[in-house]
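re: that complex we talked abt at group meeting.

here r the seqs, copy pasted straight from the sheet so there may be weird spacing, ignore it
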Amino acid sequence: MTTCEYRPGLEGVPATQSSISYVDGQTGILEYRGIGIEEIAQQSSFLETAYLLIWGGLPTQQELEAFEHEVQYHRRLKYRIRDMMKCFPESGHPMDALQACAAALGLFHSRRELDDPTYVQAAVVRLLAKIPTMVAAFKMMRKGNDPVQPRDDLGYAANFLYMLNEQNPDPLEARIFDVCLILHAEHTINASTFSAMVTASTLTDPYAVIASAVGTLAGPLHGGANEAVIDMLQEIGSIENVRPYVEARIVNREKIMGFGHRVYKVKDPRARVLQGLAEQLFDKVGRDAYYDIALELEQVIEEKLGHKGIYPNVDFYSGLVYRKLGIPTDLFTPIFAIARVAGWLAHWKEQIGKNRIFRPTQIYEGPHNQAYLPLEKRLQLWDKS
Ligand code: SDX
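got the structure back, here u go
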């Protein structure tokens, strides 16, 4: 077995063969099962998109209705999960709460009959159905309020918005939110999906797989960037401050949140659609001052970093949409997770269908044949840096 060249971050190294989604980073193409993301965003719904990603094809009317009904039926949480959430600290980050709840779900369904299609179907439905309820419940309970029970008469996106504040969501806002979920559902072998695959390859339960992926998505270089973008726009504060801010970040070699991508070297196609959604919302409910700062930021970054292929990614405009929908900033990444559960489950299913446990190698750079030094002879302090 020859070891191939080491690539930091496994950049450009295939980790699997997959037919779930496709990205062309040079031309800004994203396809789900071969269908362009723009068309799916325009024509589909999140649950139909989840079905496409997970089961590999668009459902018939009957299949879609059955799937929607099954997911709707499983939205509620067991009281033990809610009671567990009552013990979480109010100051805790919702992504940590979500990771704990996703793992806890496995306690109630610990059979691991991955070759049983009914087990797989049940896990897919439960996770898609319950993750939004967990996010909304934590948002209410951390302030000492009772969680809002799901409403069976509302669709997937509308029900989530309802559970956040117990108000009937505006149909346009619910549709825009549903499209945001579509855009965030899947993106080939990103860090959290790779986490899901590695965890899946040990044949553990799907709840542990999703908990593993949630923990990975939380980082600011990945799903956590959407929250960081709003904090950044707030810090910049005005259009006049954009250029000095960017120049300082570049001099200090600090990354600018919401920009750059390992694969896209042009503007992320999802950012284009999200920008359109933001403008639709602004037409309806009024413009957001942060949007003007964001537009100026995009222009200055293109001028200064466009030559490096640094353009807006999916996280740059999503936060502006969620903010206009009245969603708290620290729920932006959990919303990313709600959507990406579809992609993680699709890759879980694909992985266990042709599994080989992940076990990469390394290039060893340490010493050999070292003597064990007795404690009394270890006189100098060990440099821990
Ligand atoms: C997501 O993989 C996916 O598909 C992820 C995702 C998905 O749907 O799952 O698309 C979602 O995670 C989007 C990315 C969200 N993260 C951010 O917005 C954080 C800021 N972005 C960067 O941290 C960065 O762009 C990454 C992490 C996204 C990609 O980093 P890479 O591929 O490892 O790039 P790099 O760090 O090697 O940088 C290459 C060059 C460097 O300059 P040089 O040292 O060569 O001179 O580009 C520069 C970097 O300094 N650069 C940036 C930058 N991103 C890269 N400079 C300023 N600001 C940035 N954001």
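couple things i noticed - The first strand starts at residue 21 and ends at 24. The radius of gyration is 22 Å.
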